[in-house]
């Protein structure tokens, strides 16, 4: 019933902006617990020069042409909203994924049972790398993968899986199996992760073996489907840190920002990760995943389109009149991209519209420091 009502309300997104509700609320305090994108029910590759992953742009000239992938944004939008136009598989649902995890049937076409994978494949990195049929069975989704023998999940099977202790136990073991393959270890039942003892060798391999980036997207999606939503953010944070700050996984950076972050349903968690990324991303002015620029008073261009902001407008929050305001070099964007601290001469007594809601923070010499929200 949930999906039926969801399909009636569903409106196909047409732009990246319509797919992304990450910055829908202005602050963390406005978001209530459970304010997720998955409100419809209870619970592909990025195309950049033909490759799923992409490192940071090497020069500003090429970076100006970069855009977020609409394909990626739409794919993750549908996932976070529990596939609002989802149709159950035509074949009768025999809970094949659940039965596989209960060790009652083998995966097809290999004929291997889950217990054999969990006990004999750990540490067999060649097998985990080159076998391409097991990943759809270990991490099922409500969408068809490359192994057409693997059955798609249904909402009924998801509910049954989440209430079956033995299946969930083996699912966590499968997750740790893949984490070890990638050089990561699970620390606790909250999903926290860290580098494993083999991280150097495995990270080097992961940085070069880019088909695994698609696998990680599937793993993250499956975690959310089968009751482990809280496990996503710690893994994404670690991958983001390794790709962006430590430089061990540079080839994974774009996949992390374009895909992995957006598998997370809770908007506050996405915002936290993106704020962290923006602090370290270089060149800073090419960061594509922050809050949209607020363009008050922007002039409409041909066809009624709003004119793109100039770099000066975007840096100062989108107000076309602010460049004329008597601002000082103390003007700097806040860490959330939505409030700014501005030094204004104390003698300036006629604030513009942008400063009407300004709040005095402190006085410094002949300047008064205000913090205001761009309207």
Tell me how many strands there are. Answer: 6
This entry's quaternary arrangement is: single chain
Major sheet: order of its strands? 3-4-6-5
> Would you tell me the overall average pLDDT?
75
Q: What is the alpha-carbon Rg in Å?
A: 24 Å
Count of individual helical segments: 16
Mind describing the biggest β-sheet?
A: 4 strands, antiparallel
Helical content stands at: 25-40%
Q: Beta-strand percentage?
A: 5-15%
Alpha-carbon distance between the two ends:
40 Å
Structural category is alpha+beta
The general outline is globular
Helix-strand string: HHHHHHHHHHEEHHHHHHEEEE
Uncertain segments: 26-34, 38-64, 295-375
Structure description:
This protein is of the alpha+beta class. It is built from 16 helices and six strands. It has helices at 2-9, 16-19, 60-63, 70-80, 96-101, 114-120, 125-130, 135-138, 155-162, 165-181, 199-208, 212-225, 232-246, 253-260, 267-280, 311-315, and strands at 184-186, 193-195, 332-333, 339-345, 359-364, 367-373. The strands form two sheets. The protein has a four-stranded antiparallel sheet, with no helix packed on it. A two-stranded antiparallel ribbon has the order 1-2. A hairpin with a 6-residue loop joins strand 1 and strand 2 (193-195). It is globular. Mean pLDDT is 75; it is low at 26-34, 38-64 and 295-375.
């Amino acid at each position: 019933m949930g999906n039926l009502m969801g399909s009636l309300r569903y409106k196909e997104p047409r732009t990246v902006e319509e797919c992304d509700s990450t910055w829908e609320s202005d602050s963390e305090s406005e978001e209530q617990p459970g304010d997720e994108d998955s409100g419809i029910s209870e619970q592909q590759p990025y195309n950049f020069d033909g490759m799923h992953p992409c490192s940071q742009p090497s020069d500003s000239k090429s970076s100006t042409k970069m855009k977020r992938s609409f394909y990626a944004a739409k794919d993750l939008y549908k996932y976070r909203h529990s596939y609002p136009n989802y149709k159950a598989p035509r074949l009768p649902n025999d809970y094949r994924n659940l039965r596989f995890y209960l060790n009652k049937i083998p995966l097809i076409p290999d004929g291997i049972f889950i217990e054999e994978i969990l006990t004999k494949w750990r540490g067999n990195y060649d097998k985990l790398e080159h076998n391409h049929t097991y990943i759809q069975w270990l991490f099922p989704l409500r969408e068809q993968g490359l192994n057409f023998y693997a059955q798609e999940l249904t909402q009924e099977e998801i509910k049954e899986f989440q209430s079956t202790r033995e299946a969930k136990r083996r699912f966590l073991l499968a997750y740790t199996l893949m984490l070890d393959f990638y050089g990561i270890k699970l620390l606790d039942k909250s999903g926290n992760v860290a580098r494993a003892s083999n991280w150097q060798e495995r990270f080097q391999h992961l940085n070069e073996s880019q088909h695994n980036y698609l696998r990680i997207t599937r793993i993250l999606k499956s975690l959310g489907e089968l009751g482990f939503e809280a496990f996503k953010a710690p893994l994404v944070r670690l991958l983001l840190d390794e790709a962006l700050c430590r430089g061990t996984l540079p080839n994974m950076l774009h996949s992390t920002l374009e895909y992995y972050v957006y598998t997370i349903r809770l908007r506050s968690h996405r915002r936290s990760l993106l704020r962290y990324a923006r602090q370290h991303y270089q060149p800073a002015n090419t960061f594509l995943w922050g809050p949209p620029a607020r363009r008050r008073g922007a002039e409409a261009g041909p066809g009624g389109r709003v004119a793109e902001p100039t770099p000066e407008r975007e840096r100062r929050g989108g107000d076309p009149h602010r460049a004329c305001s008597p601002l000082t070099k103390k003007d700097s964007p806040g860490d959330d991209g939505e409030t700014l601290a501005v030094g204004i001469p104390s003698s300036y007594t006629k604030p513009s519209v942008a400063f009407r809601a300004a709040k005095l923070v402190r006085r410094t010499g002949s300047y008064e420091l205000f913090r205001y929200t761009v309207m």
